[in-house]
Design goal:
single chain, mainly alpha, two-stranded parallel sheet, 18 helices, globular, disordered C terminus
Length: about 450
């Protein structure tokens, strides 16, 4: 029994291309609507590390944390030299990356299924809670989503067009390694699959381009590290042993598997919420008729996040492009199946629900959190001397003290002259913390003297 719908087939015949203005208008909308809601403070531990890296790059000092994110941090440094604040430069990269991802995915969806698919995909990129969150904070997950979309599109062209050059995709994959090295590993199997059928000459050419691109930024990174006399020779090895291998399910800690699956599931849910139902209607187009392409685009990351490491919801941004692309295609198909009135009602209900959830869980908490930070910062300002000791907790806020806590790492950043110690709320735990060493020490937490 055929699963195709006659009205879908006729619509596909009519909507064989996308109006060129739609993706660009959606990208502009994605940029404009987020500008009033960009964060002003580094609202995450890693954000502080990136900010410190923009000011003084040293992986050994966790400025930023390993593996260093060389190209990402140094792009922010260029923007900082152009006049933006260190954190403002990071946020600018995130919001522009989100807009570029919206343009690219809307264009791709339009090429696959016409204007309605382009519009649905672009709006989903804008109202997605996870995408909105990562577009407004200074973290590397925003560019991760755009680069995954760009690499997916370039690989799609390679897969469908034998004459397509492998150079641009090889360069892009090398750049991804300098922004988020793990994403390079996740996308490598898809790229190799798409160039393998071209013959040995294009394969060697592509591998050479990838090696040259990666080697260029790695050499620059090595020179930067050598210029820092405080770098320990075994710093990365110790980090890999303590923070990665010793906690992995594959090293015997199988309780981490449930932890990883919880974070992965939450990250995937935060992409589309109820919009996931649209993914299952994404049929009848060229992309879904190539399941091997979609599997190679997604399975490496899913396997790693499940079996190895998944500590941040933002990790899932590398999976966002294939998921939202399928959801946009499925939503366009649902509109045809449900006919104009019901289809439009479903479309508005879904988008409104996502927008409401984004406002309630992302926008309002961010603004409230920044207002709290400003309150505490202003109250502590008269006491920022080397003799002052600031006790804080590692969490953003607590029910007991909703307005009097600063995150430990953010407190170190805001008050570099003050000694900052972190302490737990539970009285049974020992008081732990670390002296605030400003920009020149690691952020390790030790017992206070």
């Amino acid at each position: 029994m055929s699963t195709s719908h006659p009205r879908i087939e006729s619509a596909a015949a009519v909507e064989s291309s996308c109006a060129p203005g739609i993706p660009w208008l959606l990208g502009l909308l994605a940029l404009v609507v987020r500008l009033p809601f960009l964060t002003q403070y580094p609202l995450a531990w890693d954000s502080v590390q990136f900010v410190l890296g923009v000011e003084h790059y040293s992986v050994a000092l966790h400025q930023p944390h390993p593996p260093g994110y060389f190209l990402y941090v140094h792009l922010a440094r260029l923007l900082h030299l152009g006049g933006l604040s260190p954190y403002g430069a990071l946020v600018a990269i995130s919001v522009v990356s989100a807009a570029a991802m919206t343009v690219l995915l809307a264009y791709w969806a339009g090429k696959l299924a016409g204007n309605s698919a382009a519009l649905a995909t672009g709006i989903l990129c804008i109202v997605s809670p996870l995408a909105w969150w990562m577009a407004t904070v200074g973290l590397s997950y925003g560019p991760s989503g755009f680069l995954s979309a760009l690499m997916g599109y370039l690989c799609w062209r390679l897969y469908r067009r034998p004459e397509e050059s492998v150079w641009w995709s090889g360069i892009t994959l090398g750049i991804i390694g300098g922004v988020r090295p793990s994403d390079c590993a996740f996308l490598l199997p898809l790229w190799l699959f798409c160039i393998w059928h071209k013959g040995w000459r294009p394969v060697l050419s592509g591998l050479l381009v990838l090696a040259v691109t990666t080697g260029a930024w790695m050499m620059a990174s090595t020179l930067t590290v050598q210029a820092s006399p405080e770098v320990p020779s075994d710093g990365l090895a110790v980090y890999a042993s303590k923070y990665l291998w010793d906690r992995l399910p594959l090293s015997g800690h199988w309780n981490r598997l449930l932890h990883n699956l919880k974070y992965l599931g939450t990250g995937l849910a935060a992409m589309l919420m109820g919009g996931w139902i649209c993914v299952f209607f994404a049929r009848g187009n060229e992309l879904t008729r190539r399941p091997e392409f979609l599997l190679l685009w997604t399975l490496p990351a899913v396997a790693f996040f499940s079996l190895m490491l998944m500590d941040q919801l933002g990790y899932a941004m590398v999976l966002f492009p294939p998921v939202v692309l399928l959801a946009g295609l499925g939503l366009a198909r649902l509109q045809i199946i449900l006919r104009p009135v019901l289809g439009t009602a479903f479309w508005l209900l879904l988008m409104g629900n996502l927008a409401f959830y984004t406002a309630q869980t992302i926008i309002l908490p961010q603004r409230e959190g920044e207002a709290n930070i400003e309150t505490v910062r202003a109250a502590c300002e008269p006491y920022r001397t080397p003799e002052t000791v600031l006790l804080t907790n590692g969490e953003w806020r607590t029910k007991e003290e909703p307005l009097r806590m600063l995150p430990y790492r953010l407190a170190m950043y805001l008050f570099p002259e003050v000694r900052v110690y972190r302490f737990p709320l539970e009285p049974t735990l020992e008081v732990t913390g670390g002296p605030n060493a400003g920009y020149q020490k690691q952020s390790a937490m030790v017992k206070p003297p």
